[in-house]
Amino acid sequence: MSAQSEKKEIEFPELPLVTEDFLSKAQAAAGCQMAEYAPGEREALLAGIKKLLKEQDAVLVAHYYTSDDLQQLAEESGGYVADSLEMARFGHDHPASTLIVAGVRFMGETAKILNPEKRVLMPDTEATCSLDLECPVDLFTAFCDGHPEYTSVVYANTSAAVKARADWVVTSGIALPIIKHLAERGEKVLWAPDRHLGSYVQRETGVDMLIWPGSCVIHEQFKADGIRNLKEKYPQAQVLVHPESPKEVVELADVVGSTTGLIKASLNPDVHAFIVATEPGIFYKMKQASPAKLFLEAPSGGLGGTCESCLRCPWMAMNGLRNLAEVLKTGANEITIEEDIRARALVPIQRMLDFARRHQIIVKEKGNA
Ligand code: SF4
Predict the structure, then answer these.
(1) Is the confidence at residue 368, as pLDDT, over 70?
(2) Which residue of 158, 212, 233, 291 could cross-link 192, Cys pair, CB 3.0 to 4.6 Å?
(3) Same domain (yes/no): 45, 68
(4) Count of other CB atoms within 10 angstroms of residue 341
């Protein structure tokens, strides 16, 4: 049977999971900022922000998990939509003197670490990440001090201070080759903070690892039973899973990958339906690239009216058009990092970038949340 005839046989019923109304209620219940605009307000904000970006010599870099509005605005205004590391690298290469980072706090910090000469602003500096919150620098430092025989490897979703204490920083896509490299050198690994990504890397490499018990509040919610049920209903669908998800969910995956890796997988011309286990902001890029395909949200453990059920990262949702316009007008929410910490945090990031270059690994395509 040809791929063309297979395509015609797939029936695409209505999405069974998250309606706009449900999403709106769930996020409102969670205290997230759902953007509701008066007539004409959204258009006025978009036009005003584009004008301010030019006046302020600024460029907008947005993460895949931000709203469709912000991703579209970044693209239309000459900015960029990417994973955290590539956001920082784009900002480095772009001539603008101000970077507006729409994402969460560690992304603004990474941008500042790599671009100390630039002004970095964020719509809301309170936007954080459960992985970052669950790995405070004092506890991490004490843990490292208690296990000096281990090489410390931290995920990008950590504060600048934690990065400054680490031997290596990794993204989800480059974690496996770096850990294998460390194993070949006979090193043992202290991994922080995501336990699911850590145990995935450990299963794949067999390396002796101590794993910090942090997790992403979003990815931890995906449930294997729900995915199995959905797969029965849509047997042709490929299951795409971010490795921050629990082991039972990762085991059901056709593709395990970072945000950029999953977007790339969705371009497979032979597959026309996907069950996607990651933050639903990623659908903007997936649907933009493949508008005729079916993208289904992997079911979560939430029962309704919570972050767990809508699966929108509550901190990513703190980025909006109104607060973006405000920081452009006022210059508020600038990211600053003590030079000593910034310089030390740059070392393990640079080590990863050098490793990627030496091994010809395209970190750009293997980023992370
Ligand atoms: S989706 Fe998870 S990993 Fe990403 S910023 Fe939100 S809490 Fe952190």
Answers:
(1) no
(2) 212
(3) yes
(4) 19
CA atoms within 13 A on the CB side of 27: 23
Question: Could you list the residue range(s) of the whole structural domain that residue 261 is in?
Answer: 219-310
Residue 39 Cα, ligand 1 centroid: separation in angstroms? 32
C-alpha dihedral, 37 to 41 to 44 to 49, nearest 10°: -40
As a whole number of angstroms, the distance between CA 36 and CA 128 comes to 23
Read off the pLDDT of each residue in 246-261 and give the average, rounded to a whole number.
95
Q: In ligand 1, which atom is closest to the CA atom of 194?
A: 3
Q: Quick check: is 293 in a domain?
A: yes
Which amino acid appears at position 197 of this protein?
A: L
Q: Is the pLDDT of residue 275 over 80?
A: yes
CATH of the domain at 358: 3.40.50.10800
Distance (Å) from CA 312 to ligand 1 centroid = 9
Tell me whether residue 7 is in a domain.
no
Atom in ligand 1 nearest the alpha carbon of residue 103: 5
Q: Is 313 in the pocket of ligand 1 (CB under 6 A)?
A: yes
Do residues 148 and 200 share a domain?
yes
Q: Based on the fold, state whether residues 249 and 297 are members of the same structural domain.
A: yes
**In this structure, is residue 254 part of a structural domain?**
yes
Span 91-98, average pLDDT:
94
Protein residue with least CA distance to atom 4, ligand 1: 369
Q: Whose CA is nearest to atom 8 of ligand 1?
A: 129
Q: Which of 32, 217, 260, 319 to mutate to test the pocket of ligand 1 (most atoms within 8 A of CB)?
A: 217
Residue 322 lies in a domain: yes
What's residue 308's pLDDT?
46
CA 287 – CA 254 distance, rounded (Å)? 19
Residues 208 and 350 in one domain: yes
Instruction: Tell me the three state secondary structure of residue 218.
Output: coil
DSSP E strands, 231-271: 238-241, 255-256
Ligand 1 atom closest to 131 (CA):
8
Count: domains in the chain? 3
Q: pLDDT tens for residues 276-327?
A: 999 999 999 999 999 999 999 999 875 444 444 578 898 899 999 999 999 9
